[in-house]
Amino acid sequence: MKNEAIAVIGWIALVQGGRLFGDGPWGLLQKWWDVPTAGYIALFTAGVVLAAWAEITKQRAKAKA
């Protein structure tokens, strides 16, 4: 259950940092705050790391079972 929550948080952060791809910012974050480009890069990177970590942990647990 913990890994699924981390994966969801990672994917949400990844989408929020999606300003890097496309014409403008994605998600709700840009509606509440004026986030600089570096903030979007940090969000995107954190989302990738969290989602990848959760998926790797899930695969390791599946391999042990």
Produce the secondary structure layout:
Elements: H1 2-16, H2 29-32, H3 37-64
Helix pairs in contact: 1-3
Question: What do these coordinates show?
Answer:
With 65 residues, the protein is mainly α. It has 3 helices and no strands. The protein has helices spanning 2-16, 29-32, 37-64. Helix 1 packs antiparallel against helix 3 (37-64). The chain starts with a helix and ends with a helix. The mean pLDDT is 81.
Structural class: mainly alpha
Distance between the termini: 16 Å
Please state the oligomeric state of the protein chains shown: single chain
Q: Total number of β-strand segments?
A: 0
Can you write the helix and strand succession as a string? HHH
Mean pLDDT: 81
Question: Notable features of this structure?
Answer:
single chain; 65 residues; mainly alpha
Question: How is this structure best summarized?
Answer:
By secondary structure, the protein is mainly alpha-helical. The chain is built from 3 helices and no strands.
